[in-house]
TrEMBL record:
<keyword id="KW-0808">Transferase</keyword>
<protein>
    <recommendedName>
        <fullName>tRNA (guanine-N(7)-)-methyltransferase</fullName>
        <ecNumber>2.1.1.33</ecNumber>
    </recommendedName>
</protein>
<feature type="binding site">
    <location>
        <position position="138"/>
    </location>
    <ligand>
        <name>S-adenosyl-L-methionine</name>
    </ligand>
</feature>
<keyword id="KW-0819">tRNA processing</keyword>
<comment type="function">
    <text>Catalyzes the formation of N(7)-methylguanine at position 46 (m7G46) in tRNA.</text>
</comment>
<feature type="binding site">
    <location>
        <position position="63"/>
    </location>
    <ligand>
        <name>S-adenosyl-L-methionine</name>
    </ligand>
</feature>
<feature type="binding site">
    <location>
        <position position="88"/>
    </location>
    <ligand>
        <name>S-adenosyl-L-methionine</name>
    </ligand>
</feature>
<dbReference type="Pfam" id="PF02390">
    <property type="entry name" value="Methyltransf_4"/>
</dbReference>
<feature type="binding site">
    <location>
        <position position="174"/>
    </location>
    <ligand>
        <name>substrate</name>
    </ligand>
</feature>
<dbReference type="GO" id="GO:0008176">
    <property type="term" value="F:tRNA (guanine(46)-N7)-methyltransferase activity"/>
</dbReference>
<comment type="similarity">
    <text>Belongs to the class I-like SAM-binding methyltransferase superfamily. TrmB family.</text>
</comment>
<comment type="pathway">
    <text>tRNA modification; N(7)-methylguanine-tRNA biosynthesis.</text>
</comment>
<dbReference type="InterPro" id="IPR055361">
    <property type="entry name" value="tRNA_methyltr_TrmB_bact"/>
</dbReference>
<keyword id="KW-0489">Methyltransferase</keyword>
<dbReference type="InterPro" id="IPR003358">
    <property type="entry name" value="tRNA_(Gua-N-7)_MeTrfase_Trmb"/>
</dbReference>
<dbReference type="InterPro" id="IPR029063">
    <property type="entry name" value="SAM-dependent_MTases_sf"/>
</dbReference>
<feature type="binding site">
    <location>
        <position position="115"/>
    </location>
    <ligand>
        <name>S-adenosyl-L-methionine</name>
    </ligand>
</feature>
Length: 230
């Protein structure tokens, strides 16, 4: 099904700010040489997963804001039977993941370098995703910036519409206040149901990053949430 006119024309607050970030020569080279093979251009039409990944009927998982791609690559390596579609806006992160794909010989990852709301509206068909991963999104900790947080009711409504029945949303954050907001927003969406009583233990499929391990050693908390579509 095509996205509706309302979805494609609705304005939204972006959860990121473009700024000049450091990018290594290796990341820059990956963007130049590897992007043509693994990066899918943004288009205003639904993506054909079978054509994009070169295989039929594999479940597709959307990873939103994959950062430097460490977690994405590890999960994709462990779950070879699943497709992983990563959405990220920053050049350094895209370049880093491209290098990981190349070094690890991965074939089940594709990347779209674009705003995720527009990708969801225009490129992801209704009820087509098997799962969504949102790991450590920008918490926008200052109160006046909370409106920029990704996990808001309209976004979750859009996300839920793209999940097939039984598909899941897995969020993780190390900011307690944001974790509480996530729990409230996800719980209030009637199309999905919590798989745990409140927060969940970290599932095996989400590897612990070095930054997360360092935070835990310092006494910082990490909160996981896993909701499934009814």
């Amino acid at each position: 099904m095509q996205p509706t006119k309302t979805e494609t024309s609705q304005p939204h607050i972006r959860s990121f700010v473009h700024r000049r970030g450091h990018i290594t020569q290796g990341q820059r080279q990956a963007l130049e040489t590897l992007a043509p093979k693994w990066v899918i251009p943004y288009e205003r039409q639904p993506l054909d997963y079978d054509n994009a990944f070169g295989r039929s009927d594999a479940p597709t998982i959307l990873e939103i804001g994959f950062g430097m791609g460490e977690t994405t690559a590890q999960i994709a390596q462990a779950r070879e039977g699943d497709n992983f579609l990563g959405v990220e806006v920053f050049n350094a992160g895209v370049g880093a993941l491209l290098n990981r794909i190349d070094c690890m010989g991965l074939t089940n990852i594709r990347i779209i370098q674009h705003d995720v709301v527009e990708v969801l509206r225009d490129m992801i068909a209704i009820e087509s995703l098997a799962g969504v991963h949102i790991y450590f999104p920008d918490p926008w900790p200052k109160k006046r910036h909370h409106k920029r947080r990704l996990i808001q009711p309209p976004f979750v409504e859009l996300l839920t519409s793209r999940l097939r029945p039984g598909g899941y949303i897995h969020c993780a954050t190390d900011w307690e206040h944001y974790a509480e907001q996530m729990l409230e927003v996800l719980t209030n969406n009637t199309g999905i149901v919590n798989t745990c009583e409140g927060f969940c233990p970290r599932p095996d499929w989400r590897p612990r990053t070095k930054f997360e391990a360092r935070g835990l050693r310092l006494g910082h908390g990490v909160w996981d949430l896993i909701f499934k579509k009814r």
